Amino acid sequence: LTLETSLRYALERQELQLYYQPIVGLQNGRIVGAEALVRWHHPQQGMISPVKFIPLAEQTGLIAPIGEWVLQTACNQTKSWQSEGLPPVRVAVNLSFRQFNQVDLSERLVRILAQSGLDPSYLELELTESILVQNVELTIAKLNELKSMGVQISLDDFGTGYSSLSYLQQFPFDLLKIDRCFVQDINTNATNAALTNAIIQMAHSLNLKVIAEGVETPEELAVLYENKCDNIQGYLFSRPVKAEEFKRMLKEGK
Ligand code: G
Ligand code: G
Ligand code: MN
Ligand code: NA
């Protein structure tokens, strides 16, 4: 079987699974959210990275059912944790370029949110800079349509594309995620430190909350704390984990 054929069957064979990586408030060290990250357990090839199969899903159109399953699963899971009395946290879902451009994205989202019962303010949609190179007015209108549903929108992998913060100003984002290549070694790499700090200050002046990705050491954390970064995500706190494990972390108030 080709990878494409296997991917066609992955959903019905229940080979996809969502992992959750905690997002932590920097001031109090509490979990404030999770990024949902899809995993594919291929029956023969074992774990296949989304870096490999998401682009394939986009090329083949399979991103529609897969993306729908991801959104449904993330919303249902998050609502169910809340119903069990765990501290309410938001869930961040990655949307690919093609998903963002689906004509029926809003209707899908409205339906999924209603079915899950999740308050829309707990859903965060992660978009990358790739969406910003399209028609600006159209993209802003789409973002506003999504925002009018009450969901939050973040700009993922910030710094890896071509957009400056002043360009960003016109788009209605709520959060900005600094790509981990800028966060790496900020305690020893002066260039990265300067860039990261400038991004945080400017983002705050534009009323955006900032999430630093890929935080791996206490030393990096200390620099981010000094510079009033809002949230952190990275192996220092936790790798992406299975739902049961994330639930345990929430329960323990880690
Ligand atoms: O955690 P990991 O190495 O698996 O993530 C690799 C990449 O796959 C990241 O860029 C992440 O944004 C992307 N990714 C993970 N899950 C999803 C998903 O559900 N949808 C989309 N579009 N991308 C995802
Ligand atoms: O592209 P996106 O930011 O959505 O994907 C997040 C990716 O970063 C995932 O592949 C996730 O597993 C990975 N990741 C999360 N935390 C860390 C970290 O601390 N170090 C490294 N190297 N990768 C991380
Ligand atoms: Mn992401
Ligand atoms: Na990212």
What are the SSEs and their pairings?
Blueprint (H helix, E strand, L loop, with lengths): L2 H8 L5 E10 L5 E12 L3 E3 L1 H11 L2 H21 L6 E5 L2 H4 L4 H12 L6 E5 L8 H12 L4 E7 L6 H4 L6 E4 L1 H4 L6 H16 L3 E4 L5 H9 L4 E2 L8 E2 H9 L3
Parallel strand pairs: 2-4, 4-5, 5-6, 6-7, 7-8, 8-9
Antiparallel strand pairs: 1-2, 1-9, 1-10, 2-3
Characterization of the model:
By secondary structure, the protein is α/β, with parallel strands linked by helices. The chain has an 8-stranded mixed barrel, surrounded by 4 helices. Helix 3 packs parallel to helix 5. The longest helix has 21 residues. It is globular. The termini are far apart. Bound molecules: guanosine-5'-monophosphate (2 copies), manganese (II) ion and sodium ion. The site of one guanosine-5'-monophosphate has 11 residues, from strand 2 and helix 2. Keywords: Phosphoprotein. This is EAL domain-containing protein.
Helix and strand string, N-terminal first?
Answer: HEEEHHEHHEHEHEHHEHEEH
Q: Helix coverage percent of residues?
A: 40-55%
Biggest sheet strand order reads 1-2-4-5-6-7-8-9
Helix- and strand-based class?
alpha/beta
**Number of helices in the DSSP assignment:** 11
Can you summarize the main beta sheet?
A: 8 strands, mixed, barrel
- Please count the beta strands (DSSP E, at least 2 residues each): 10
Strand content: 15-25%
Report low-confidence residues grouped into runs of 5 or more: none
Ligands in the model, by name, code or SMILES, are: guanosine-5'-monophosphate, manganese (II) ion, sodium ion
Radius of gyration (Å): 18 Å
The dominant shape is globular
Mean pLDDT: 95
State the distance separating the first and last CA atoms.
Answer: 43 Å
